[in-house]
Amino acid sequence: MAIKEFCYLIYTKARLNVKAENSLNKLSYAWLLIEPLLFMGVYYIVFGILLHSKTDNFVIYLLTGLVPWLWFNKSINRSSMSIVAGKPISSQVPISKSFFVLVSCTQEFIRQTIAIAMLLITVVGFGYLPNKSWLWLPIVILLQFIFTIGCSLLLAFIVTYIRDVHLMLSSCTRILMYVSGIIYPISKVPETYQWVFDINPIANMIILYRQILIEQVSPSTYSLIYLLISAVSLIALSIALYISKDQSMTREVMR
């Protein structure tokens, strides 16, 4: 199958899945707007009011962290079991295992465009008007999409062999959120522990969004390059694993 046809098949399947979900869920896209606002309200009370760790315009600070995070978190959770869940199809049609992961990631991206649009409207509503730094936004969104695919491919590969990893995912992502500076300013972290954020791709990704939307400056070269290298490395590793372990993965899925 040609790459163009493969990509079209992924997009078509993802779009149909989104339509099917929306027909079953009454809130459908509305929940994509409600969820980050609910999280923002909780974290604003806990970190902004009770713990006094808020920054200026803490609402926007939280949203610029939560919207990208929820996109990433939902994507990897949805994708982690996608290969196993795709058994009825893969048992009948010879198709790459990566297809199921890519469909899941694309499906979540289509859904999250509503939340991203809400974020941009809210940012403008708080007085952060678009400027030339916004030209970087599509690049950062693309980098996040590629990075998310890389993480999802690797995670789905692991879950194919060790199903229990999927059960641990919720706890692991919660820990990851707390060490990524999503709900508190990284500047308040002691200098001794700053290296944790420097090597964390998620933290660098959130920094990029905040530099563009809040600080309204060109994004950090370090964060851009680090996120790009992380994304490409994960994709390359996943491709190597999927090619070398294709037959082994098939046996694991079918068992």
UniProtKB/TrEMBL annotation:
PROSITE patterns according to UniProt: ABC_TM2
InterPro entries recorded: ABC2_TM, ABC2_TM_bact-type, ABC_2_transport
GO cellular component: ATP-binding cassette (ABC) transporter complex
Compartment(s) of residence: Cell inner membrane
Record's bilayer topology term: Multi-pass membrane protein
Record-annotated ABC transmembrane type-2 domain positions: 27-245
GO terms assigned for molecular function: ABC-type transporter activity
Superkingdom of the organism of origin: Bacteria
Keywords: Cell inner membrane, Cell membrane, Membrane, Transmembrane, Transmembrane helix, Transport
Coiled coil: none
Stretches that traverse the bilayer: 29-51, 57-72, 109-129, 135-158, 165-186, 224-244
Entry keyword Transport: yes
GO annotation, biological process: lipopolysaccharide transport
UniProt record similarity statement: Belongs to the ABC-2 integral membrane protein family.
Protein name: Transport permease protein
